[in-house]
Give the backbone structure.
Amino acid sequence: MELSFLILLLIKKKIKEDHDDINSRDNIRFITCYLGVNKIKRNHRIRKYFQALDNYVPYANVIFCVSEYTKIHPIIIRHKKIAIKIERFGNKVIEDLRNKYPYSSPFFYNGIRYYFYSQYLKKNSKIKYVVISDDDTLFFRDPFPLIYKAPNVVHFMEDIFPFSVTTDGNYKWTNAWDCLDNKIKKKCNFKQLNKVILSDEFKNKIPLNSGLLMGSSKNIIKISDLIFTRFICAGMFPNNAEQGLLNYLDLSGELKELNINIRRHNIYKDSLLSCPEFLPIKNYIQQINSLHFIALHHFEYLNKYYIERSPKEIRTFLRKKF
């Protein structure tokens, strides 16, 4: 009886330590990148990203990665509750890349940002947990209780259409990586897909969305290193979106070989919503009002009909004007 009581106390102590650790500002980072532009104006959507965090996750420690030359309007980073640190990385201009690689830009930045994630987290080893997202992701609840339940899990969003919808970007991007020259694949250590994307094995699978992932730094580093090394090795080619690369690595099994427990969040029933503009309005209302709802990706594509049926407290963030 005494031994059981002692074990129970030790378990409670460990849970408390983990809980304290996961809620320490020093150990947690939100990271978002916006690279390749000369100026970020006061009405840029990144401002809403910060505003939502300031309102709903007031302890947030945020890293905002921009290019070395980018000028930022002061109001963008002027918030009372969250801490924002600017990190500068890279000096390539998106317009130059768009002219040189009309089918690849701005995909270059979506791939190279994974190098920043990896290098930053390796240099800042005290950071144990991280939320990486696009700048058009709004957080309406604290995401860290989700991580706290299973600290070794990495959370991904799923998109809404399966690969069989060939008009969707995910099929086009993933197929572009599948069609990469075999000599390049061999040089870059890609695994070949054992079947075509429209095979019975793959066609009904829902693609992953790279706009949001979160988990322990050690796992995020592994994923970032895999994406970045493959992306840079392959070089520029039409439709080389890093989301297509992510899904190719998922289909080929390379993502699984990292031995990371990955949880996929489906838009119809889970916490992280991507591409909500494609949800039927009944499903949208159900999800946006659910207790498990945490974050909304691609909020800027929502039309007024959807926005006005959102909970009152978040409508301001979803409306176009500040």
